[in-house]
Amino acid sequence: MPLVRRFWLAAVCTLAGLWAASAAQAQQHKLLPSDTEAIVTINLQQILKSEVVKGNEALLKTVQEKFNEKIDEQGVGKWLKKAGFDPFRDLTSITVAVPGGERNPQEGFVILEGNFDADKIEEAATEASKEAGGGLTIARIAGIKAYEVSPKDEKTIYIGILNKKTMFAAASKEDFAGAVARFNGTKASALKSELKTLLETVNNKQSFSAVATGPMVQKLSENLPNVPKQAADKVKKLEGLAISVTVQKNIDFQLAVTVEDNKTAMSFADIGNLFITGARLQIGQKAQQEPKLAPVADILQTLRAEAQGKNLILRGQVTFDTLTKILQNLPIPNN
Known about the structure:
By secondary structure, this protein is α+β, with helices and mostly antiparallel strands. The protein has two domains: 116 residues, Protein Transport Mog1p, Chain A; 145 residues, no CATH class. Helix content is 47%, strand content 24%. The chain has 14 helices and twelve strands. Helix 12 runs antiparallel to helix 13 and helix 13 packs antiparallel against helix 14. 22% of the residues are buried.
């Protein structure tokens, strides 16, 4: 095949892959309420299929066993089995959206992507409700079946299944109806422009991503204990925050912070690189005496801070060799 043709074929395939990733993410985000100010996504299947996880079967087996023990203790395991749903097999991704403004951040919106059998789920949910003495009502909201879950002394949650691949949970009937309308195309997505800008820094090829507007970052930081005043003042200058982690053979991570102007971003980048350089020297010396610190020293060698416009970006990597060193120090049971 001629070189030019190979080049264009590779370019088309790459663009098609990027388009598919952005299209899938757009489909996912269009369901979210318009007052969303933070979004967290975990791409479970991308993680489970990565070389890192496949190369550490003992760790994965331990996680699965602990998860199954936990849900069995809570009486959830048997209902998942009845619904024909195995999270490690059938759950593709989880997206959690947090509202801003005057709303309580706990009034979130959740999207589950995977493989869902609506009939089996309804049967399992109905039996579980009867065994628990109630708490589940099945109604119709915006033309689709809605499961109204009302735990004792807690607010009602509204759960819907849009198709075999998409399930969602909303904190209100309004959010539920809005998601259905956006899914059907009768209502346009109206996410804030600053949130849309942040979403451009992440994609559904990543294992984990989180974005939040400046007001949301400030709101969440107010609930953290013992935050120094100087740090709190810096947080007020943030216009947005984006974090992403990609698990493949190595683990790549990135932190992007949007500040008030390019000058501030450059100042933060300079300070960050000075801090990183100092940490490399200090931890590097200690690692010679304490081998367990070697992985930390390795990670510090990959860290870089830079300014791109109003964005301060910190990038780093955990290599497969470094991860192996970390896992060797973890107490993983033999059985």
